[in-house]
């Protein structure tokens, strides 16, 4: 599952950024250099302890030929990577191809998906606080930047219900802003479910990080 999610997110990031660059909505250097590199960095932090963070059939085959990776796991890895890439490409087909803004339900989906990635990363880094340490802030900040770079021209993602609802109440358009303050809750719930599937129950280290008692800095997700 980790390999499929990783490969799919790489496709979403790369192709999504390229599409935005073609439309003039994202600088070429950001689309071709910054987004792909940042996405891979984030995914390695997220999944390296689960699957080795290959995300690339060529890498998996190389490890297998090197006898660092068991042959019997090769088909499952390759299948997951290809399936993740296929589903991601199909998902991109459902987004606007031109300069039009997304519909409210699409904005809701983007909010949920972006928040799910952010919360997945927050839960993973909380679990591995002792080995990741202060780099948590760097990688989570990079994730927030990626989300805004890839979706900012389509919809004003917030990844944070308070960030969305507070200003909306002041403007008097809280009902119209519903995708931005409801989507993150759904994304967070999806992230929790995926974390249970991938990692099992919460550990005491996660609880300490969530309550601000772990060594180093607490998770900065709430400030994103």
UniProtKB/TrEMBL annotation:
**Gene Ontology CC entries for this record:** membrane
User: What are the record keywords, sorted?
Assistant: Membrane, Transmembrane, Transmembrane helix, Transport
Q: Which domain of life is it from?
A: Bacteria
Pfam families, per the entry: MIP
Please tell me the species this chain comes from. Answer: Deinococcus ruber
Q: What is this protein called?
A: Aquaporin
Which GO molecular function terms does the record list? channel activity
- TM region(s), chain numbering: 29-47, 74-92, 107-126, 138-158, 178-198
Q: How does it sit in the membrane?
A: Multi-pass membrane protein
Annotated compartments: Membrane
| Protein family membership | Belongs to the MIP/aquaporin (TC 1.A.8) family.
The question of whether Transmembrane is a record keyword is answered with yes
């Amino acid at each position: 599952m980790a390999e499929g999610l990783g490969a799919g997110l790489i496709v979403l990031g790369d192709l999504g950024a390229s599409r935005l660059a073609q439309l003039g909505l994202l600088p070429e250097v950001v689309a071709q250099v910054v987004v792909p590199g940042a996405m891979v960095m984030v995914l390695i932090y997220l999944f390296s302890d689960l699957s080795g963070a290959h995300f690339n059939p060529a890498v998996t085959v190389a490890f297998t030929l090197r006898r660092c990776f068991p042959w019997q796991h090769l088909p499952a890895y390759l299948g997951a990577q290809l399936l993740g890439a296929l589903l991601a490409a199909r998902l991109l087909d459902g987004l606007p191809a031109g300069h039009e803004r997304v519909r409210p339900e699409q904005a809701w989906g983007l909010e949920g998906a972006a928040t799910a990635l952010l919360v997945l990363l927050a839960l993973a880094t909380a679990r591995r606080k002792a080995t990741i340490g202060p780099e948590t802030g760097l990688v989570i900040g990079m994730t927030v930047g990626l989300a805004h770079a890839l979706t900012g021209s389509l919809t004003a993602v917030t990844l944070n219900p308070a960030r969305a609802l507070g200003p909306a109440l002041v403007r008097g358009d809280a009902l119209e802003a519903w995708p931005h303050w409801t989507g993150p809750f759904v994304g967070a719930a999806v992230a929790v479910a995926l974390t249970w599937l991938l990692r099992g129950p919460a550990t005491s280290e996660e609880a300490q990080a969530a309550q601000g008692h772990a060594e180093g800095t607490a998770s900065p997700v709430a400030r994103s």
